[in-house]
Amino acid sequence: MVLFLSRSDVESLVTMREAVKAVEKAFLELHEGKAVCPKRLIISVDKHEGFVYYMPAYLSQTESLAIKIVTQYEENLKHGLPTILASILLNDPENGKPLALMDGTYITATRTGAASAVATKYLARKDSSVAGVIGTGGQARAQVQGLREVLENLTRVKVYDILPKRAEEFAYSLSRELSLTAEAVGTSKLCVENSDVIVLATTSKVPVLDGDWIKVGAHINSIGVVGPEGRELDDKTVKRAKIVVDTAEGALAETGDLIIPIKKGIISRNDIYAELHEIVGGKKLGRTSNDEITCWKAVGMALEDAAVAKLVYDKAKKEGIGKEVDI
User: N or C: the chain end with fewer CB closer than 10 Å?
Assistant: First the structure.
């Protein structure tokens, strides 16, 4: 029997606080050699302007063996569908039998927010109080939720979106749900200026900010745009920032935020300061001064999904949530 968990089941079973702890532990496992996380396989569905990602991982300490299949279709927004859709299959690492099939869309957003939260914990100034968020799609809410878990002084969030109404609705919901002062602003410049933490969660193919707008000591979480031709970050930003990635191999293969400035000679591969597991594991320091600008450039790792999926499964079994099906 396989446990089937719907999106509503998953939402009821995991909190951002739990996800942050699980994802941080997963990065520590990776650092200690207790995790296997191959480079994900990407298939371009050119006919329909989409991408499919196959993302397996094994966490030996957490006892999680999982694979996520996630799709990214930018045109979905025009049809009332999320850009990102995903499902996760969890297997028993002891004997390989399938344990659970669960919605992965909510987990994708949650673990991405959790990973950014872990990066923010080590890279942002401890006194950070103002966040600027560019992009208000499905990932943005989880990003702010993650920031709330690691920034004690966070009280204000500025929001910008190319669709002003969506930005206003997002800001209103943040104010109600998270007890924050959230406001929609009219330009990306206003969103970035004087923000202690900057979140970029867009599908833009061109930079959405100017490096001159970024205040000294700010931290950036760039989680949007997957693909070597697209970028959220401009040349000035990547030149000014201490860059931390989830995986250098993935970042150098998949994100134009780094590929493009490297090709232009603006930065080199050696300008990637660290992979996050190196900082979590204590091999390298995170933020070392109040003046440096830091940047978390994420492309996503399957170990994050495996960690949260196991958390969801264990709680579902304990609480009797989900439906057992025979396949």
Answer: C
Total count of residues recorded for the chain? 327
Residue 226 has pLDDT above 80, yes or no: no
Beta strands in the chain (DSSP E): 2-5, 35-36, 41-45, 50-59, 64-73, 84-91, 98-103, 130-134, 156-160, 181-184, 197-200, 219-222, 242-245, 272-275, 294-297, 323-325
Mark whether 282 and 225 lie in a shared domain: yes
CATH number for the domain harbouring residue 7: 3.30.1780.10
Confidence class of residue 307 from pLDDT cuts 50, 70 and 90?
Answer: very high
Q: 178, exposed or middle or buried, with CB in 10 Å at 0-12, 13-18, 19+?
A: middle
Which residues are known catalytic residues? 68
Element housing 124 (H / E): none
**Residue 196 falls inside a structural domain:** yes
289-298 confidence digits (pLDDT tens): 999 999 999 9
The boundaries of the domain holding residue 293 are: 124-300
Coil, helix or strand for 204? coil
In this prediction, residue 325 carries a pLDDT of: 92
Q: Is residue 272 domain-shared with residue 156, that is, in the same domain?
A: yes
Q: Say how many domains are in the chain.
A: 2
Cα 229-117-322 angle, rounded to 5 deg: 95
pLDDT for res 78: 84
Find the mean pLDDT for residues 148-162: 97
CATH of the domain at 247: 3.40.50.720
